[in-house]
C-alpha cells in the first residue's frame, strides 16, 4: 500500500521487515527514519537498503520530485484557506467598528447642528437646508443603487424566479460533482505533483470552483448580516475548498486536504427537491432532511479521518501514518457510530483518536436518534402510495367510500361474475386506511384486475394518482351499518363534490342511505343523471322491495335475485331448492333486437323469444318521434318494434341474450336448438343495428343519453302511432273523469285516515301533481291515532300492519318509501290497502311530516312486542305484517342488531287466534270483511281456493322481516335446516319472501355501471313510479303536492301491474293440473296481453303426500316444459284496467288471500283484454274469461 511518509506521502513509501527493523525510505527528500536496533541513516538518494540475511529485494518505483529538494507544501494550501477566512473576518469586524464610530460621531454632530438651527431662527432655515438636502439626495441615490444590486442578488439565490431556481440547482449539482472528483482523487496520495494543463480532473475542479467563487460573491452581496454570512457552514466550505485549488495551479501540485467538506452541501438536498416540487409532504421532507444530515456528517467525518491517518501527526514528523482508503474510513466511522467496533480498522494517529473521541459522543447520539426515526418514517410510508398506470385499451373504474372486507368481497363477487361475459375493466380501490391482512389477501387473489391505493378522494393529489380524469366511472360505497346515516350520506356527498370539482365529466354512481339526502346531490352543478350519474338510495329500494311483498309476497325475493349475479347450482334431488336455484341463476340483461323483429307487436316478439330463443323479454326502450326514450314494461300489442330497439331480458347469462340480436328469420326459422342461433352473414342484419351492438358496451350511456328519461309513465307518445283500439281506450278514459272507483257497497267503518271518496271531480285533488300517487290533504297526526280500544272495535281486514321499533333518538328510516308504492295511482281507491303503524308515537311523529298526504293511514301507539296491540289491529286478518327497526345500527354486536325484529317475528308466530272472532265481529258491525261477499257462502271459491273463516295460528300470518345481519336469518324459522354459514339467498326465509336484508342491494352498483337502465327499471318496479321530476319536487318541498286531475295526469295511471294468478280456478284451471308453463305463458299473452315471469309455489308441492305447510317459494322464469300444479300462483304483468273501479265497485280488495288454503280470500277482478275490448262478443263465454288475481302496482 502507498502512503505518505509524513505530509509528503505522495513521494515516499515506507516498508517494514519482520527480520530487520530498518525502515526503507523511498522519499526523494532527505527525510530519515530511525531503526529500532541501530541509528544508521539512509542516504538522500533513491537507493534501497538490503536487509540482513537472505531477504528479498523489492523493487519500488517512485514519483519524480516536484523540485530537487522534494519539499512538501501542505501548509501553503492550508494557509490560503486560513488567511482568506480570518482576513475576511478581520475586515468585516474592522468595517463594523469604523461604521459604529462614524455613526456615533455623526449622531453627536447632528445634535449640535439641530441646536444651532433652533438658535439661528426661522429666517436662516431656508438657506441652511438647501445644501443639506442636496447631500441627502446624493446619499439616497447611492443607497438606492446598492439596494437594487442587493435585491437582484437576493432574487438570484433565493430561487424565486426560474433563473434563480436554475442557479441554485446548478450550484448543488456542481457541489456534488466536486465531491465525486474528491472521491476519485482520494485513491491517490494525499499530496502529489500534478500539472494543471495535463490533469483533466484538476481542470474540471478548477472550473467548478470558479463558479463557486462567483456564487459566493452573489451570496455575500445579498447577505444582510455579513458577519453571520461569513461564519455559516456553506461559507466555511467555500473557504477551505476554493482557495486551495488556485494554490494547486500556482504550485503545480495537489493536496487532498479539506475538500471532503463539499459533502456538507448534501444538507441542502431537501431544499433542492422542494424547489423542484418533488417533495410535497411533511414526512417526505423530514425523511430527506434526516438522511441528508446523517450522510453528510458521515462522509465529512470519514474525510477527516482519511486525511489525518494517511498523513500522520505533525509533532511526530508524520511518521505514525497508516495507509487507509477513503471507503475504509467510511466503514470505520459506521462501526464506530453504531458502537460495534470490530477493531479490524482503527485510528493510529493522535489526531485521529482525539477526533474519534468527540465523534463518538456526537455520532452515537445522532445514530441513536436519527436512524430509528428514519426507519420509522420509511416504515410508515404508505405501502400503497404509488400511482396507477393506465393500460392501453383497458378501462378502469375507481371505487372508494366504505372499503371493508365484506363490501369489497360482495362487490367483486358480483362485478367479476363469469356470467357477465368478458369484463375488461380494471378496478382501482382508493381508501385512506391500509387494508388488513384478509382484505390484502383478497386483493392479491384478484391482482390481475384489482389494485389498491391508499389515499382520500377529498385530496386532489390522490385523485391524480388514480387517474380519475381517465376513469370510466367512480363508484362510492356507503356503510350500511353506520349509527348515523345522515353523517354517512354527508361524507359521500362531500366525496361526490370533491370528485366533480376535480373532473366534472366523470360518471359517479354512489350509494345513499337516506332518501331525503338525495336532494343534496341535485345542488352539485356538474351532477347530471342524463350523463350516467346515479344515486342508489338503499332506504328507498329496501322499503320499496318490502312494499312489493305487501302486495305480492315473494316478489321482493324474485326481483332481488334478478339483478344479482348468481352461479347455477345443480341439485339432483327433487326438492324445492332444485327449482328455486334454477330460477336464481337468472339475471336481467339488455340487448338490441334483431331487425327481424321490426314491425312486430311486443307480445308477438315476446312469445317468439320465449318459445324460439328461450329468452324472456319483459320491457323495451321505446323512442318516440321526438327521439325521447322511455322504458315500457309489457306495453301491449298496440306497440310495434322499431329498428334498433333495446330489449330487457331475463336469462341465465349474457351469451344467451345475444340470440335476440343474431336472430334471422331466413337463417334460423327452422332451428329448434337455440344454442345454434349465432351470427350469420345474412344481409337482413342491418348495418345500423350491427354498429350499435359492436360499440363498447360500457359506452351505452354516451350513445343513448336520452334513455335515462325513462321513468315517465307508460302513455301514448304519439296518438298517430297507436291502434284505434288503444286510442279509444285512452280517449274514453280521458273523456270520463268520473270513471274512478266508487264506494264499496259494504264499506269498512270510518277509522282515522280512511277518507271516503266521492265520484271524481276535476276540482278535487285526489292525486299528486305528477298523477303517480294517491293524495289527500295534510292531516294532523292526532286525527289518525287509534287507541287500543278503538282499534279493537274497528274491524280491520286485508290491511298492512307495520311494526316499527324506534324512539326519539333513533335515525329516521324514511317510511314514506314504504307507503308510496302502496299508494300508486294505478290502483283504484277501493283497492288501496289500509296501513296501520304500530310503534312509538314519539318516533312516528318525526316521520309523520312525510306521511300526512297519504290516505288510509292509521297509527296505534304501542309496541310490536305487545300481543294486545297486535290483536287490536287484527293481525290475523292482515294481508302483510312488516317488521322494521330504526335501532339496528346502534348496537356494536352484529348478532344482536336484529334482536327486536327477531323477537317480534317469533312473538307473532307463536300467537293463537279464534277462527270465529273475525266473522262475528264483522257481522255485529254490519260489515263483511273484504274478499267475502255477503251473498255468497263462507266457503265460496275465491282465487280458485276454498276460503276458511280466519287464521288460527300466527305461523300462517304473512310476515316480512327486515334484517341487518344476514346470518341472523337462521333465527326466523325454527323448522328450517339452514346452516349458519349459508348465504342469504340460499336460506328458506329469503326464498319464501319472509326475510329481506339490505345487503342484497350491493349488486346494484355493478348492475348500474354496466347498464344504467337496469337501475331505472328496478326503481320503476319497486318505488311506485318515482320520477326525476318527482324527486326534484320532493327536494324542494319535502312533501307531495296535490294536483287537479287533467287528461295528462290521469293518463299517468295507465301503467302496468304485477298480478298473482291462481290456477285452481278460472280461465287457466285446465293448465293447473299437469299443464306446461309454456302453454300458460302463450295463452295468457295471446288472450289477455298478460306476461308471466315466475311461479310462487308451495314448499312441499313436489311431495306425493299432502302437507300442512303453507310456505311458498319463488321460481323465476321456468322453462317452457315446466309442469304446473293446481296450487301454483303465477307472477304476471298485466295491463291497467280502467273499468275496474266501475264494474267491480261492489267488490272489495284483498291481495294476500290466495297464497294458501288456510288464508282469507281476496277480491275478484277481471283480466282486461285491452286488445280485444272493442270487438269482444257480449256473451256468457266472454264473461267466463274472468280470472282471479292478486294485483299489485308495477
TrEMBL record:
Signal peptide: none annotated. One of its GO terms (cellular component) is monoatomic ion channel complex. Gene3D superfamilies: 1.10.287.70, NAD(P)-binding Rossmann-like Domain. Keywords: Calcium, Cell membrane, Ion channel, Ion transport, Lipoprotein, Magnesium, Membrane, Metal-binding, Palmitate, Phosphoprotein, Potassium, Potassium channel, Potassium transport, Transmembrane, Transmembrane helix, Transport, Voltage-gated channel. It is a multi-pass membrane protein. Residues 394-536, 797-941 form the RCK N-terminal domain. The chain crosses the membrane at residues 73-95, 166-184, 204-222, 287-308, 323-342, 354-372. InterPro entries: Ion_trans_dom, K_chnl_BK_asu, K_chnl_Slo-like, NAD(P)-bd_dom_sf, RCK_N, Slowpoke-like_C. Residues 26-50, 705-746, 1144-1194 are annotated as: Disordered. Residues 29-47, 1144-1169 have a biased composition (Low complexity). Pfam families: BK_channel_a, Ion_trans, Slo-like_RCK, Slowpoke_C. One of its GO terms (molecular function) is metal ion binding. It catalyses: K(+)(in) = K(+)(out). The keyword Cell membrane applies. GO terms for biological process: regulation of membrane potential; vasodilation. It is found in: Cell membrane. Residues 1178-1194 have a biased composition (Basic and acidic residues). SUPFAM superfamilies: NAD(P)-binding Rossmann-fold domains (SSF51735), Voltage-gated potassium channels (SSF81324). PANTHER family: CALCIUM-ACTIVATED POTASSIUM CHANNEL ALPHA CHAIN (PTHR10027), CALCIUM-ACTIVATED POTASSIUM CHANNEL SUBUNIT ALPHA-1 (PTHR10027:SF28). Belongs to the potassium channel family. Calcium-activated (TC 1.A.1.3) subfamily. KCa1.1/KCNMA1 sub-subfamily. This is Calcium-activated potassium channel subunit alpha-1. The gene is KCNMA1.
Amino acid at each position: 500500500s502507498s502512503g505518505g511518509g509524513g505530509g509528503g506521502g505522495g513521494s515516499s513509501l515506507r516498508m517494514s521487515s519482520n527480520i530487520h527493523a530498518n525502515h526503507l525510505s523511498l522519499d526523494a527528500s532527505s527525510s530519515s527514519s530511525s531503526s529500532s536496533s541501530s541509528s544508521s541513516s539512509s542516504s538522500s538518494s533513491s537507493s534501497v537498503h538490503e536487509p540482513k540475511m537472505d531477504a528479498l529485494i523489492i523493487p519500488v518505483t517512485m514519483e519524480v520530485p516536484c523540485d530537487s529538494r522534494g519539499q512538501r507544501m501542505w501548509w501553503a494550501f492550508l494557509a490560503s484557506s486560513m488567511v482568506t477566512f480570518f482576513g475576511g473576518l478581520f475586515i468585516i469586524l474592522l468595517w463594523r467598528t469604523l461604521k459604529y464610530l462614524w455613526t456615533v460621531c455623526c449622531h453627536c454632530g447632528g445634535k449640535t447642528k439641530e441646536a444651532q438651527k433652533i438658535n439661528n431662527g426661522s429666517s436662516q432655515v431656508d438657506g441652511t437646508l438647501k445644501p443639506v438636502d442636496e447631500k441627502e439626495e446624493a446619499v439616497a441615490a447611492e443607497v438606492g443603487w446598492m439596494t437594487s444590486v442587493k435585491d437582484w442578488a437576493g432574487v438570484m439565490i433565493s430561487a424565486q424566479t426560474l433563473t434563480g431556481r436554475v442557479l441554485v440547482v446548478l450550484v448543488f449539482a456542481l457541489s456534488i460533482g466536486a465531491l465525486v472528483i474528491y472521491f476519485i482523487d482520494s485513491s491517490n496520495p494525499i499530496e502529489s505533483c500534478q500539472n494543471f494543463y495535463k490533469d483533466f480532473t484538476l481542470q474540471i475542479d478548477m472550473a467548478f470552483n470558479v463558479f463557486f467563487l462567483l456564487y459566493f460573491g452573489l451570496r455575500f452581496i445579498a447577505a444582510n448580516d455579513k458577519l453571520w454570512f461569513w461564519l455559516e457552514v456553506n461559507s466555511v466550505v467555500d473557504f477551505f475548498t476554493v482557495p486551495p485549488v488556485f494554490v494547486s495551479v500556482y504550485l503545480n501540485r495537489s493536496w487532498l486536504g479539506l475538500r471532503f467538506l463539499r459533502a456538507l452541501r448534501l444538507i441542502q438536498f431537501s431544499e433542492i427537491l422542494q424547489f423542484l416540487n418533488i417533495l410535497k409532504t411533511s414526512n417526505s421532507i423530514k425523511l430527506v432532511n434526516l438522511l441528508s444530515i446523517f450522510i453528510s456528517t458521515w462522509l465529512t467525518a470519514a474525510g477527516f479521518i482519511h486525511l489525518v491517518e494517511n498523513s500522520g501527526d505533525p509533532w511526530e514528523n508524520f511518521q505514525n501514518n497508516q495507509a487507509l482508503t477513503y471507503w475504509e474510513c467510511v466503514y470505520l466511522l459506521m462501526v464506530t457510530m453504531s458502537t460495534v467496533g470490530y477493531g479490524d480498522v482503527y485510528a493510529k494517529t493522535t489526531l485521529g483518536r482525539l477526533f474519534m473521541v468527540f465523534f463518538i459522543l456526537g455520532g452515537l447520539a445522532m445514530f441513536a436518534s436519527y436512524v430509528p426515526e428514519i426507519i420509522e418514517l420509511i416504515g410508515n410510508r404508505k405501502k400503497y402510495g404509488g400511482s396507477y398506470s393506465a393500460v392501453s385499451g383497458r378501462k378502469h373504474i375507481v371505487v372508494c367510500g366504505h372499503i371493508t372486507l365484506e363490501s369489497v368481497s360482495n362487490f367483486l363477487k358480483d362485478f367479476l361474475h363469469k356470467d357477465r361475459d368478458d369484463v375488461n375493466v380494471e378496478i382501482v380501490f382508493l381508501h385512506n386506511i391500509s387494508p388488513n391482512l384478509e382484505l390484502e389477501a383478497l386483493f392479491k387473489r384478484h391482482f390481475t384486475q384489482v389494485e389498491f391505493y391508499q389515499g382520500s378522494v377529498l385530496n386532489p393529489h390522490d385523485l391524480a394518482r388514480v387517474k380519475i380524469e381517465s376513469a370510466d366511472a367512480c363508484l362510492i360505497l356507503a356503510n350500511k351499518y353506520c349509527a348515523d346515516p345522515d353523517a354517512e350520506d354527508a361524507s359521500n356527498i362531500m366525496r361526490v363534490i370533491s370528485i366533480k370539482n376535480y373532473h366534472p365529466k366523470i360518471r359517479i354512481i354512489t350509494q345513499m342511505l337516506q332518501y331525503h339526502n338525495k336532494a343534496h346531490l341535485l345542488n352539485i352543478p356538474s351532477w347530471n343523471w342524463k350523463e350516467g350519474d346515479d344515486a342508489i338510495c338503499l332506504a328507498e329500494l329496501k322499503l320499496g322491495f318490502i312494499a312489493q311483498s305487501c302486495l305480492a309476497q315473494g316478489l321482493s325475493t324474485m326481483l332481488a335475485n334478478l339483478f344479482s349475479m348468481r352461479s347455477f347450482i345443480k341439485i339432483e334431488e327433487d326438492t324445492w331448492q332444485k327449482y328455486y336455484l334454477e330460477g336464481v341463476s337468472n339475471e336481467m340483461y339488455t340487448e338490441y333486437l334483431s331487425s327481424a323483429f321490426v314491425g312486430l307487436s311486443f307480445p308477438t316478439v315476446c312469445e317468439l323469444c320465449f318459445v324460439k330463443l328461450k329468452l324472456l323479454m319483459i320491457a323495451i326502450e321505446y323512442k318516440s318521434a321526438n327521439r325521447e326514450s322511455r322504458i315500457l314494461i309489457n306495453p301491449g300489442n298496440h306497440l310495434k318494434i322499431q329498428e334498433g330497439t333495446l330489449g330487457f331480458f331475463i336469462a341465465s347469462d349474457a351469451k344467451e341474450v345475444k340470440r335476440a340480436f343474431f336472430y334471422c328469420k331466413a337463417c334460423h326459422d327452422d332451428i329448434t336448438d337455440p344454442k345454434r342461433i349465432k351470427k350469420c352473414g345474412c344481409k337482413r342484419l342491418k348495418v345500423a343495428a350491427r354498429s350499435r351492438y359492436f360499440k363498447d358496451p360500457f359506452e351505452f350511456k354516451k350513445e343513448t343519453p336520452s334513455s335515462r328519461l325513462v321513468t315517465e309513465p307508460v302513455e301514448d307518445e304519439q296518438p298517430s302511432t297507436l291502434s284505434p283500439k288503444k286510442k279509444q281506450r285512452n280517449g274514453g278514459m280521458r273523456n270520463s273523469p268520473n270513471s274512478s272507483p266508487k264506494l264499496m257497497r259494504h264499506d269498512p267503518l270510518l277509522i282515522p285516515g280512511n277518507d271516503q271518496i266521492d265520484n271524481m271531480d276535476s276540482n278535487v285533488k285526489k292525486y299528486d301533481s305528477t298523477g303517480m300517487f294517491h293524495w289527500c290533504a295534510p292531516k294532523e297526526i292526532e286525527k289518525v291515532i287509534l287507541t287500543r280500544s278503538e282499534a279493537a272495535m274497528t274491524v280491520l281486514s286485508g290491511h298492512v300492519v307495520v311494526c316499527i321499533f324506534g324512539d326519539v333518538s333513533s335515525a329516521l328510516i324514511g317510511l314514506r318509501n314504504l307507503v308510496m308504492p302502496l299508494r300508486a295511482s294505478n290502483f283504484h281507491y277501493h283497492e288501496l290497502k289500509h296501513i296501520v303503524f304500530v310503534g312509538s308515537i314519539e318516533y312516528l311523529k318525526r316521520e309523520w311530516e312525510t306521511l300526512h298526504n297519504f290516505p288510509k293511514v292509521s297509527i296505534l301507539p304501542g309496541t310490536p312486542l305487545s300481543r294486545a296491540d297486535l290483536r287490536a289491529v287484527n293481525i290475523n286478518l292482515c294481508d302483510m305484517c312488516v317488521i322494521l327497526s330504526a335501532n339496528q345500527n346502534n348496537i356494536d354486536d352484529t348478532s344482536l342488531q336484529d334482536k327486536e325484529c327477531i323477537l317480534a317475528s317469533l312473538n307473532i308466530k307463536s300467537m293463537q287466534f279464534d277462527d270465529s272472532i273475525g266473522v262475528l265481529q264483522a257481522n255485529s258491525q254490519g260489515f263483511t270483511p273484504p274478499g267475502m261477499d255477503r251473498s255468497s257462502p263462507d266457503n265460496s271459491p275465491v282465487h280458485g281456493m276454498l276460503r276458511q273463516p280466519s287464521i288460527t295460528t300466527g305461523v300462517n300470518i304473512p310476515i316480512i322481516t327486515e334484517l341487518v345481519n344476514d346470518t341472523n336469518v337462521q333465527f326466523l324459522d325454527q323448522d328450517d335446516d339452514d346452516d349458519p354459514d349459508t348465504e342469504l339467498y340460499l336460506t328458506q326465509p329469503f326464498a319464501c319472501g319472509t326475510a329481506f336484508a339490505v345487503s342484497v342491494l350491493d349488486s346494484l352498483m355493478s348492475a348500474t355501471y354496466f347498464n344504467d337502465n337496469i337501475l331505472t327499471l328496478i326503481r320503476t318496479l319497486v318505488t311506485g313510479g318515482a320520477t326525476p321530476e318527482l324527486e326534484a319536487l320532493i327536494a324542494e318541498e319535502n312533501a307531495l303536492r296535490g294536483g287537479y286531475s287533467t287528461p295528462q295526469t290521469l293518463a299517468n295511471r295507465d301503467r302496468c301491474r304485477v298480478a298473482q294468478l291462481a290456477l285452481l280456478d278460472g280461465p287457466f284451471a285446465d293448465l293447473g293440473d299437469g299443464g306446461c308453463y309454456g302453454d300458460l305463458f302463450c295463452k295468457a299473452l295471446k288472450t289477455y296481453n298478460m306476461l308471466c315471469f315466475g311461479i310462487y309455489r308451495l314448499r312441499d308441492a313436489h311431495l306425493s303426500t299432502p302437507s300442512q305447510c303453507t310456505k311458498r317459494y319463488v321460481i323465476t322464469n321456468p322453462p317452457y316444459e315446466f309442469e304446473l300444479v293446481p296450487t301454483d300462483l303465477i307472477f304476471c304483468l298485466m295491463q291497467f284496467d280502467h273499468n275496474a273501479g266501475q264494474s267491480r265497485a261492489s267488490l272489495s280488495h284483498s291481495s294476500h288471500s290466495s297464497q294458501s288454503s288456510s288464508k282469507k280470500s281476496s277480491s275478484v277482478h277481471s283480466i282486461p283484454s285491452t286488445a280485444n275490448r272493442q270487438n269482444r262478443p257480449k256473451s256468457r263465454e266472454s264473461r267466463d274469461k274472468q280470472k282471479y288475481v292478486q294485483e299489485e302496482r308495477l
